[in-house]
Predict the 3D structure of the following.
Amino acid sequence: MKQAAKILIADDEQAITTGLSAILADEGYHVDIVGDGQKALERLSADGYGIVLADLRMPKIDGMTLLKELKAKQLPTEFIMITGQGSVDVAIESMRQGAADFIEKPLNSERLNKLKAQIPRLIEKYALQQKNRELSTRLENLTHYGELTGQSESMREVYQVIDAVAPSTASVLILGESGTGKELVARALHSKSERAKGPFFALNCAALPKEILENELFGHEKGAFTGSTNEKPGAFEMSSSGTIFLDEVAEMSPDIQVKLLRALESRTVRRLGGKKEIPVDIRIVAATNRDVQKAISDGDLREDLYYRLAVVDIYLPPLRERAGDMQLLAEEFLTRFASQNGKRIEGFDEDVMQWILTYHWPGNVRELKNAVERAVVMARGTRITQSDIIPRHLRSSGEMPAAVTIPVGSSVADARRQLVLRTFASTGGDIPRAAKLLGISVGELRAELVAMINDGDASRPAGGAAAPERADGSGRSGAEQEEGDDEDAPPAPPKAAAKGQRSPPPPPPPPAKGKPGAKKHR
Ligand SMILES: Nc1ncnc2c1ncn2[C@@H]1O[C@H](COP(=O)(O)OP(=O)(O)OP(=O)(O)O)[C@@H](O)[C@H]1O
Ligand SMILES: [Mg+2]
């Protein structure tokens, strides 16, 4: 058999079906025949055919209806309409409905030759689309990919892009707020590629002083500078046939950017103090949490380097825009940390999950992960309660939430409750200020809060809403080769402080003494 894909002929005229099938079988194709549209539909629903050749006029279901049915049922096949003489209008209409082509009766040798020439191309198109369909179905229902967890539409799109670009050597730029998982994406790009056998080399461009970063990247020859008694290959050489991950790439100094651009263009590097051009086989994955356009217009990131780095870009949306992932992530972290801490914890109290789903997570997944870890450590019972997770978490910084995430499907009453509570929490329990922000009277707000507390379903705010200690700094710094996650390391000083990007969080607000909001409901 020439091709794996099969061909179906649907026609009630035996002369046509016999003739066509003989010709196509001669060409090496597997051909099946049915005598009416109904049977054709049944066969196509039950089995995959690369091409269907269907007569416009046939019993039960005509060709045009069959075509429409196939489209409506999303049954993939390439459709060729067999039309009677002079029915050009119908032929054109069938193409409009999605037919690949039409062939006019009588089937003379010229028309048959054209058909024969066309069939391999259509089968190839079908096979390619089939492959893409398989790929997207495979990724459609995924909740995990590499080390990434997430089932939201946007994460599944991310998985698809990673899957598609991982095998190539194209440079990838990963964009997204701090803690959204950029490094995990970089690792997935590495591990899903042929390069997985080679090293993954992570360098943080913001954490390393310029000279050290240059030395790490390009290496040096013996005697290149005072004290360099040995030669040292740089990351480019050491991770040849692997992947280099350049984190916080917009913080790289301008002259290293020039050298990097040169290395990317020529695929060679020169060590510091060296003359030799050393060829390297490298894939660069870079990441930044900055607004790239702004970094370019501020002169921090060279535009030509940006284009070289962002052959493909992957944007990771903030966690607050991925409501579909929050619960999954929270539960997974709970299981992980409970087992790490040898605790038996069954789940989150319902109001805790409610809070998790509505908090705006400025530190994204990292913040959620840290909050859950802390809660597990704090928990005394078998479920995580508000006092385990919220107060400790909110105490650690004075940052205020800027948004309330209300999942689709919430009632107006729920939305109102969340807005009231989040605003109230963001003011640190200051009723007059919260009332002013909400545009309602102090009395009204007080009454609402009392009603919520009495209902017992309030996501109790205490102190002020904020990010955890490490919402803004992963602790990773410097060069690191395939060492897994940094999260278990003790917190390091915030990265990129020099750029004013990740300054330490402001001090926590004073407890709102005597105010109902400061009351802890345990
Ligand atoms: N989708 C996810 N699934 C599981 N864990 C995640 C996910 N996203 C992030 N994390 C975890 O959150 C933490 C932060 O992720 P990561 O270091 O990849 O973020 P980042 O975007 O590189 O942040 P930064 O910009 O601060 O460097 C890590 O501990 C990581 O394991
Ligand atoms: Mg990172």
Observations:
- The chain has three domains: 7-137, 153-317, 320-468+511-518.
